[in-house]
Fold:
Amino acid sequence: MNLSFFDQFSSPSLLGIPLILIAMTFPALLLPSPDNRWVTNRLSTLQLWFINLITKQLMTPLNKKGHKWALILTSLMIFLLLINLLGLLPYTFTPTTQLSMNLALAFPLWLATLLIGLRNQPSTSLGHLLPEGTPTLLIPALVLIETTSLLIRPLALGVRLTANLTAGHLLIQLISTATVALFSTMPAVSLLTLLVLFLLTILEIAVAMIQAYVFVLLLSLYLQENI
Structure:
């Protein structure tokens, strides 16, 4: 039983071919396609309004130099948001529960922001490792601590996203299993558990959206530090 709870996090495969790439590309089908018409349907209008809202929120903490990253950050936000939400559907697979995938998204983007800072303003970027007014005896320890906190950023991004989504999926499966198991013996308790499951599902929808936003927002803040 314990192993079956974690089977949902294993990458599905067909004839030995992993299907995670299909799961990652499927959200692209939900995005609006370019259209030459002035008047579109309500769904396309709502999608474009939502994309515009996301872009404004992500670009607010950045100066004009950081606006060059608008396409990358907005695309990443929508990608993570759709994958997280689609993963809440029954009999689906959530690629963002895989730590390897989240680290593959976090590390290159974090490294790009770091290299931009070292190229454009090396003294300021290196100055973040040593706060002003630090006592001489504490300089080696603070440099080591700040360097460790800098290098652990991509790991924190990936682990945060993976842990939150994995915990939510496990809770949903545990409570749904309890609901089915109690239905024949204790129907009243089963209905109460079903109500808890409904509330937890609403919470997980909010967590899926918040975690996608936090992932990209932290990347934008790292970018702001280096430009």
